[in-house]
Amino acid sequence: MANQFIKKLGLSKDTLFNLILTISAVLLIILGVGFFLSLFNASLVSLKKFGLSFFAKAEWDPVQEEFGALPFIYGTLLTSFIALAISLPFSIAISIVLGEYFQKGFFAEVLRYLTELIAGVPSVVLGFWGLFFLVPIVREVEMKFEIPPYGVGILTASLILAFMILPYSGSIGKDAMRLVPNELKEAAYALGATRWEMIKKVMLPYARSGITAGIILSLGRALGETMTVTMVIGNYHGIPENIFSPGNTIASVIANEFTEATGEVYLSSLMYLGLTLFIITTVVNLIGRFILKKLQH
After folding, report:
1. Which regions of the chain does DSSP assign to beta strands (E)?
2. Which of 38, 74, 110, 216 is the most buried (most CB within 10 A)?
Protein backbone atom coordinates (compact mmCIF):
# COMPACT_ATOMS: atom_id res chain seq x y z
CA MET A 1 0.00 0.00 0.00
CA ALA A 2 2.84 2.35 0.82
CA ASN A 3 4.57 1.42 -2.43
CA GLN A 4 1.42 2.23 -4.39
CA PHE A 5 1.19 5.63 -2.71
CA ILE A 6 4.84 6.36 -3.61
CA LYS A 7 4.21 5.36 -7.22
CA LYS A 8 1.20 7.71 -7.41
CA LEU A 9 3.44 10.57 -6.24
CA GLY A 10 5.84 9.79 -9.04
CA LEU A 11 8.84 9.80 -6.70
CA SER A 12 11.54 7.25 -6.05
CA LYS A 13 12.07 5.96 -2.52
CA ASP A 14 15.39 7.80 -2.23
CA THR A 15 13.81 11.09 -3.35
CA LEU A 16 10.92 10.67 -0.93
CA PHE A 17 13.29 9.83 1.92
CA ASN A 18 15.41 12.93 1.20
CA LEU A 19 12.23 15.03 1.05
CA ILE A 20 11.08 13.78 4.46
CA LEU A 21 14.49 14.53 5.97
CA THR A 22 14.50 18.03 4.48
CA ILE A 23 10.99 18.78 5.76
CA SER A 24 11.93 17.50 9.23
CA ALA A 25 15.06 19.68 9.32
CA VAL A 26 13.09 22.76 8.21
CA LEU A 27 10.41 22.09 10.84
CA LEU A 28 13.08 21.89 13.56
CA ILE A 29 14.50 25.24 12.46
CA ILE A 30 11.03 26.79 12.41
CA LEU A 31 10.33 25.36 15.88
CA GLY A 32 13.57 26.80 17.31
CA VAL A 33 13.02 30.21 15.74
CA GLY A 34 9.38 30.22 16.88
CA PHE A 35 10.43 29.33 20.41
CA PHE A 36 12.91 32.22 20.46
CA LEU A 37 10.41 34.70 18.99
CA SER A 38 7.68 33.73 21.47
CA LEU A 39 10.05 34.27 24.40
CA PHE A 40 11.27 37.53 22.89
CA ASN A 41 7.71 38.78 22.40
CA ALA A 42 6.68 37.80 25.94
CA SER A 43 9.69 39.63 27.43
CA LEU A 44 9.28 42.77 25.30
CA VAL A 45 7.96 44.93 28.15
CA SER A 46 10.96 44.11 30.33
CA LEU A 47 13.33 44.51 27.37
CA LYS A 48 12.07 48.05 26.74
CA LYS A 49 12.25 49.03 30.41
CA PHE A 50 15.61 47.52 31.40
CA GLY A 51 17.42 46.74 28.15
CA LEU A 52 20.82 45.10 28.52
CA SER A 53 21.18 46.52 32.05
CA PHE A 54 18.93 43.63 33.09
CA PHE A 55 21.99 41.36 32.94
CA ALA A 56 24.13 43.62 35.14
CA LYS A 57 21.63 44.47 37.89
CA ALA A 58 21.57 42.44 41.10
CA GLU A 59 18.24 43.76 42.42
CA TRP A 60 15.05 41.69 42.23
CA ASP A 61 12.16 43.63 43.79
CA PRO A 62 8.65 42.83 42.50
CA VAL A 63 7.10 45.53 44.72
CA GLN A 64 9.16 48.35 43.20
CA GLU A 65 9.22 46.58 39.80
CA GLU A 66 13.01 46.60 39.67
CA PHE A 67 14.49 43.44 38.23
CA GLY A 68 17.99 42.20 37.43
CA ALA A 69 19.23 38.80 36.31
CA LEU A 70 22.85 38.91 37.52
CA PRO A 71 22.43 36.76 40.70
CA PHE A 72 20.52 34.10 38.78
CA ILE A 73 22.95 33.98 35.85
CA TYR A 74 25.81 33.68 38.34
CA GLY A 75 24.02 30.93 40.29
CA THR A 76 23.16 28.99 37.12
CA LEU A 77 26.70 29.03 35.76
CA LEU A 78 28.31 28.39 39.16
CA THR A 79 26.20 25.36 40.06
CA SER A 80 26.48 23.88 36.56
CA PHE A 81 30.26 24.16 36.26
CA ILE A 82 30.89 22.95 39.83
CA ALA A 83 28.64 19.96 39.11
CA LEU A 84 30.54 19.32 35.89
CA ALA A 85 33.89 19.46 37.71
CA ILE A 86 32.65 17.04 40.38
CA SER A 87 31.16 14.54 37.91
CA LEU A 88 33.98 14.62 35.34
CA PRO A 89 36.42 12.18 37.08
CA PHE A 90 33.60 9.72 37.80
CA SER A 91 32.18 9.89 34.26
CA ILE A 92 35.61 9.22 32.74
CA ALA A 93 36.11 6.35 35.19
CA ILE A 94 32.74 4.83 34.20
CA SER A 95 33.65 5.25 30.53
CA ILE A 96 36.95 3.40 31.03
CA VAL A 97 35.49 0.63 33.20
CA LEU A 98 32.53 -0.13 30.91
CA GLY A 99 34.39 0.66 27.70
CA GLU A 100 37.50 -1.46 28.31
CA TYR A 101 37.61 -3.49 31.51
CA PHE A 102 34.04 -4.84 31.81
CA GLN A 103 32.37 -4.77 28.42
CA LYS A 104 30.29 -7.88 29.19
CA GLY A 105 29.29 -9.84 32.22
CA PHE A 106 27.30 -9.48 35.41
CA PHE A 107 29.21 -6.49 36.81
CA ALA A 108 28.94 -4.58 33.53
CA GLU A 109 25.18 -5.19 33.34
CA VAL A 110 24.62 -4.11 36.94
CA LEU A 111 26.67 -0.91 36.53
CA ARG A 112 24.98 -0.10 33.22
CA TYR A 113 21.54 -0.69 34.75
CA LEU A 114 22.32 1.53 37.76
CA THR A 115 23.60 4.29 35.45
CA GLU A 116 20.43 4.19 33.37
CA LEU A 117 18.31 4.05 36.55
CA ILE A 118 19.87 7.29 37.84
CA ALA A 119 19.04 9.00 34.53
CA GLY A 120 15.42 7.89 34.83
CA VAL A 121 14.78 8.99 38.43
CA PRO A 122 12.37 11.99 38.50
CA SER A 123 14.03 15.22 39.56
CA VAL A 124 11.52 15.82 42.37
CA VAL A 125 12.51 12.46 43.93
CA LEU A 126 16.17 13.47 43.82
CA GLY A 127 15.17 16.78 45.36
CA PHE A 128 13.53 15.02 48.30
CA TRP A 129 16.59 12.79 48.65
CA GLY A 130 18.76 15.89 48.75
CA LEU A 131 16.58 17.54 51.41
CA PHE A 132 16.45 14.58 53.77
CA PHE A 133 19.84 12.97 53.17
CA LEU A 134 22.36 15.37 51.64
CA VAL A 135 21.36 18.63 53.34
CA PRO A 136 21.95 17.27 56.91
CA ILE A 137 25.40 15.97 55.86
CA VAL A 138 26.38 19.32 54.35
CA ARG A 139 25.06 21.08 57.47
CA GLU A 140 27.27 18.90 59.70
CA VAL A 141 30.32 19.71 57.56
CA GLU A 142 29.52 23.43 57.74
CA MET A 143 29.25 23.29 61.52
CA LYS A 144 32.63 21.55 61.83
CA PHE A 145 34.30 24.30 59.78
CA GLU A 146 32.35 27.04 61.61
CA ILE A 147 30.43 28.06 58.48
CA PRO A 148 26.80 29.21 58.83
CA PRO A 149 24.95 25.86 58.78
CA TYR A 150 22.38 26.50 56.07
CA GLY A 151 22.64 23.00 54.64
CA VAL A 152 20.98 24.20 51.45
CA GLY A 153 23.04 26.24 49.03
CA ILE A 154 25.25 26.26 45.94
CA LEU A 155 27.36 23.25 47.02
CA THR A 156 24.35 21.06 47.83
CA ALA A 157 22.69 21.88 44.51
CA SER A 158 25.96 21.21 42.67
CA LEU A 159 26.42 17.81 44.33
CA ILE A 160 22.95 16.66 43.31
CA LEU A 161 23.41 18.07 39.80
CA ALA A 162 26.69 16.15 39.51
CA PHE A 163 24.83 12.97 40.46
CA MET A 164 22.11 13.71 37.88
CA ILE A 165 24.37 14.46 34.90
CA LEU A 166 26.76 11.57 35.53
CA PRO A 167 24.78 9.02 33.43
CA TYR A 168 24.80 11.27 30.34
CA SER A 169 28.54 11.86 30.12
CA GLY A 170 29.35 8.34 31.35
CA SER A 171 27.12 6.54 28.84
CA ILE A 172 28.30 8.52 25.81
CA GLY A 173 31.92 8.20 26.92
CA LYS A 174 31.49 4.44 27.28
CA ASP A 175 30.14 4.15 23.74
CA ALA A 176 33.03 6.24 22.41
CA MET A 177 35.59 4.05 24.19
CA ARG A 178 34.07 0.89 22.69
CA LEU A 179 34.48 2.34 19.18
CA VAL A 180 38.27 2.34 19.46
CA PRO A 181 39.53 -0.20 16.84
CA ASN A 182 41.10 -3.35 18.26
CA GLU A 183 43.99 -2.94 15.80
CA LEU A 184 45.11 0.24 17.56
CA LYS A 185 44.99 -1.40 20.98
CA GLU A 186 46.84 -4.48 19.77
CA ALA A 187 49.49 -2.27 18.15
CA ALA A 188 50.05 -0.51 21.46
CA TYR A 189 50.45 -3.82 23.26
CA ALA A 190 52.85 -4.98 20.55
CA LEU A 191 55.03 -1.95 21.24
CA GLY A 192 55.26 -2.95 24.91
CA ALA A 193 52.57 -0.68 26.39
CA THR A 194 50.81 -1.70 29.57
CA ARG A 195 47.03 -1.69 29.72
CA TRP A 196 46.95 1.68 31.45
CA GLU A 197 49.42 3.16 28.93
CA MET A 198 47.26 1.84 26.10
CA ILE A 199 44.16 3.47 27.63
CA LYS A 200 45.98 6.75 28.30
CA LYS A 201 47.79 7.09 24.96
CA VAL A 202 45.45 5.30 22.55
CA MET A 203 41.88 4.99 23.80
CA LEU A 204 41.42 8.35 25.50
CA PRO A 205 42.86 10.40 22.60
CA TYR A 206 40.83 8.39 20.07
CA ALA A 207 37.58 8.75 22.05
CA ARG A 208 38.09 12.35 23.22
CA SER A 209 35.53 13.81 20.80
CA GLY A 210 32.85 11.40 22.07
CA ILE A 211 33.80 12.02 25.69
CA THR A 212 33.66 15.78 25.11
CA ALA A 213 30.23 15.42 23.47
CA GLY A 214 28.97 13.67 26.59
CA ILE A 215 30.40 16.40 28.82
CA ILE A 216 28.71 19.12 26.76
CA LEU A 217 25.40 17.24 26.83
CA SER A 218 25.60 16.88 30.60
CA LEU A 219 26.43 20.59 30.98
CA GLY A 220 23.32 21.48 28.97
CA ARG A 221 21.31 19.20 31.27
CA ALA A 222 22.71 20.93 34.35
CA LEU A 223 21.99 24.45 33.04
CA GLY A 224 18.28 23.76 32.64
CA GLU A 225 17.58 21.59 35.69
CA THR A 226 14.69 23.07 37.69
CA MET A 227 12.93 21.07 40.37
CA THR A 228 15.87 19.46 42.15
CA VAL A 229 17.84 22.71 42.27
CA THR A 230 14.78 24.66 43.47
CA MET A 231 14.40 22.34 46.46
CA VAL A 232 18.01 22.49 47.73
CA ILE A 233 19.63 25.74 46.58
CA GLY A 234 18.07 27.99 49.24
CA ASN A 235 16.26 30.40 46.88
CA TYR A 236 18.21 33.51 47.88
CA HIS A 237 17.91 36.43 45.45
CA GLY A 238 21.37 37.89 46.11
CA ILE A 239 24.78 36.91 44.79
CA PRO A 240 26.12 34.07 46.99
CA GLU A 241 29.26 34.89 48.97
CA ASN A 242 30.73 31.38 48.64
CA ILE A 243 29.75 27.88 47.55
CA PHE A 244 28.15 27.16 50.94
CA SER A 245 25.79 30.15 50.69
CA PRO A 246 22.19 29.90 49.45
CA GLY A 247 21.54 31.16 45.97
CA ASN A 248 19.23 30.86 42.99
CA THR A 249 19.31 29.84 39.36
CA ILE A 250 17.31 31.12 36.41
CA ALA A 251 15.22 27.95 36.29
CA SER A 252 14.55 27.90 40.04
CA VAL A 253 13.40 31.53 40.27
CA ILE A 254 11.02 31.00 37.33
CA ALA A 255 9.60 27.87 38.95
CA ASN A 256 9.15 29.64 42.30
CA GLU A 257 7.61 32.90 41.13
CA PHE A 258 5.82 32.32 37.83
CA THR A 259 2.46 31.48 39.43
CA GLU A 260 2.54 34.59 41.64
CA ALA A 261 3.69 37.06 38.96
CA THR A 262 0.74 39.46 38.68
CA GLY A 263 2.17 42.67 37.21
CA GLU A 264 2.98 43.00 33.52
CA VAL A 265 6.59 43.99 34.18
CA TYR A 266 7.04 41.15 36.71
CA LEU A 267 5.75 38.49 34.31
CA SER A 268 7.74 39.95 31.42
CA SER A 269 10.92 39.91 33.53
CA LEU A 270 10.45 36.20 34.25
CA MET A 271 10.03 35.60 30.52
CA TYR A 272 13.19 37.66 29.98
CA LEU A 273 14.94 35.25 32.34
CA GLY A 274 13.65 32.37 30.24
CA LEU A 275 15.00 34.06 27.11
CA THR A 276 18.35 34.53 28.89
CA LEU A 277 18.53 30.82 29.77
CA PHE A 278 17.68 29.95 26.16
CA ILE A 279 20.53 32.17 24.93
CA ILE A 280 23.01 30.76 27.49
CA THR A 281 22.16 27.18 26.51
CA THR A 282 22.48 28.02 22.81
CA VAL A 283 25.86 29.70 23.31
CA VAL A 284 27.15 26.75 25.36
CA ASN A 285 26.07 24.32 22.63
CA LEU A 286 27.72 26.43 19.91
CA ILE A 287 30.96 26.56 21.89
CA GLY A 288 30.71 22.81 22.39
CA ARG A 289 30.29 22.20 18.66
CA PHE A 290 33.30 24.41 17.96
CA ILE A 291 35.40 22.43 20.47
CA LEU A 292 34.22 19.14 18.96
CA LYS A 293 35.25 20.23 15.46
CA LYS A 294 38.69 21.21 16.75
CA LEU A 295 39.09 17.86 18.51
CA GLN A 296 37.97 15.90 15.46
CA HIS A 297 40.59 17.65 13.29
Report:
1. 60-61, 66-67
2. 216
